[in-house]
Amino acid sequence: MTTITDVASAMQAALVNQTDAEGRVAVPGDLPTQSDQFPILKLRVVSETKTPLGRGTPQFTTLVTIRVLGEVSEPVDPDDDILVATIQAKLLALKTQVERAIINSYPLFRIVQQLVSVQTQFAFTASAQRLAGIQSDYAFEIYEGPEDFAPVDADDLEAVDLDATNYPPAGFAANLQP
What we know:
Alpha-Beta Plaits
């Protein structure tokens, strides 16, 4: 039984101390960031899509998308072209470290069926510090079956009442002989 929480926890475990962000892997990924925390990684579950495997059975192929936000920062000097290249190099290094940590995580891939896709976007800003970030969406396929869904609460069937109101309607004929 694999849940979205299991996948997110396994991703977090795969990233801790495997990148320049070291142990700074925040879940959920919307926590505030202080200037002395860079580089930092933030994770959040962004979507889930269930596709049934048939009719009448609670079996699904579920696509879980988890977003990894990575941020790096350096002091700004707009005339320093080397600094601009440095911040970009740090960002690309962090992206590569994240991909390797996730793709090489045996505990993560033990609970998912496959990594369906990775889509990464880059962003750069300049304020009191030059801030750069990545947003990588990792889509994983997991299986959810009957064991993943809680049973319906119901009383045990102890008797069947066959009074006159429970018989089939008049004109209904059924051959119950073997």
